[in-house]
Amino acid sequence: MTIIFSQSFRYVSRQILSTTALCVLALSLIFVLGNLFKQIFELLVDRDLPVTSVLQFIVYIFPYSLIFTIPWSFLTGVLLVFGRMSKDNEILALRMSGLSMLQIGKPVFIISILLCVLSFYINTTIAPKGKAAMKMTLYNMAIEDPLALIIPDKVITTFPNYRIYSANRIGNKLIGLELVELNDDKYPIRYLKSEEAIIEYNEIDDQLMLVLGNAEGIIKNNKNPKDLTNLVPGLSADETTIPLDLSTFRNNPKKFKPSLLETTELYNRLNEDSALSEKKSNEIKTEIQKRNSFAVACFAFGLLAIPLGISKQRKDSHGGFVLSLAVACVYFLGIILADNMKDQIIAQYLMWLPTVAITLLGMILFIRLNRK
């Protein structure tokens, strides 16, 4: 039986590793291309973005994609392998030879633990570095070629509290520009229209300056922007300058985002920054627990995938992928819902709810399967 166990261990391990690797490549490619198109596709088409910049984005985005694709790919791989083995009666043959489900599933548990270690390192160190580097690349693009950020015939929402639209661009000038300024509650408080505008970079203040020529506009009551009866129409000026904040493109120490910092840096912020608000402190703790929860997801998914793959006896690969998609969607939906409450103290505990729930469900189903 020792020989049978050794052979089955190598066979199952080889099948799971190869299937998981293929899934990681496929899903990561989709994820990277999706983010690439979202971030810089229009810049690539409209501004002849260098190939080196595109490659930089791919290098920075890829580690971040692994946060999601490694657990999902492992789930898919185990479902497909055990579903096929069940359909071909290979599981039955191994059970008849005296192996328990715990022995048959041992490769899954070992591989899942190794993937948990890898995922933990990616989540806590590599992915935040890549995300921060991608943000800095966008910042460098913004100061080197500010016009590249304003795509003609599209509403630009990149800059905080501003919505910008330009009908066309000729040379270094924006034609038919319209601008809406929003308050902190995202209500419009000012509307400006200009036949012609340019963008300049102010190195001293580290801001982009949008210079509108012959601007006309309407101003609302800032205290009550919903009051449409209190408008100041007909405002005009030969030249109006609007400063555009670049904080969305760079790491601002005063407005840092926890997702851009390594976990060790987040712990340092919690321990050393006495001026940290309770809201920001909760955001940091939530981000830390989200990374830890993601890292353990591989074990939870592997434990659940074994009984699901065997019990369903998938007839083809599509069924296993659809099932993995359903499980992954439920899991990531739970993470997203918890992340929406990241400034609340309960969010850091809710981050573990999907992982714990899937682990418990997997344990129950696996124990039942092992008793059969």
Overall mean pLDDT score? 82
Helix content: 55-70%
Count of structural domains: 2
Span of the ends, CA to CA:
20 Å
The H/E string reads HHHHHEEEEEHHHHH
The largest β sheet comes out as: 5 strands, antiparallel
The gyration radius over C-alpha positions equals 26 Å
Q: What is the strand arrangement across the widest sheet?
A: 1-2-3-4-5
Q: Strand pairing plus helix content: what structural class?
A: alpha+beta
Describe the structure.
It is a single chain. Strands 1-2-3-4-5 form a 5-stranded antiparallel β-sheet. Helix 6 runs antiparallel to helix 7, helix 7 (278-312) packs antiparallel against helix 8 and helix 7 (278-312) packs parallel to helix 10. The chain has 2 domains: 2-143 and 275-371, no CATH class; 161-244, no CATH class. The longest helix has 46 residues, at 2-47. The chain is α+β, with helices and mostly antiparallel strands and 372 residues long. The mean pLDDT is 82. The protein is 60% helix and 17% strand.
Write a brief caption for the model.
The protein has 372 residues and is an alpha+beta fold. It contains 10 helices and 5 strands; from the N terminus they run αααααβββββααααα. α2 (51-87) packs across α7 and α8 (317-339) runs antiparallel to α10 (353-371).
Layout of SSEs?
Elements lengths: L1 H46 L3 H37 L2 H7 L4 H4 L1 H39 L17 E9 L2 E10 L5 E15 L4 E14 L10 E14 L18 H10 L5 H35 L4 H23 L7 H4 L2 H19 L1
Antiparallel strand pairs: 1-2, 2-3, 3-4, 4-5
Helix pairs in contact: 1-2, 1-5, 2-5, 2-7, 2-8, 5-7, 6-7, 7-8, 7-10, 8-10
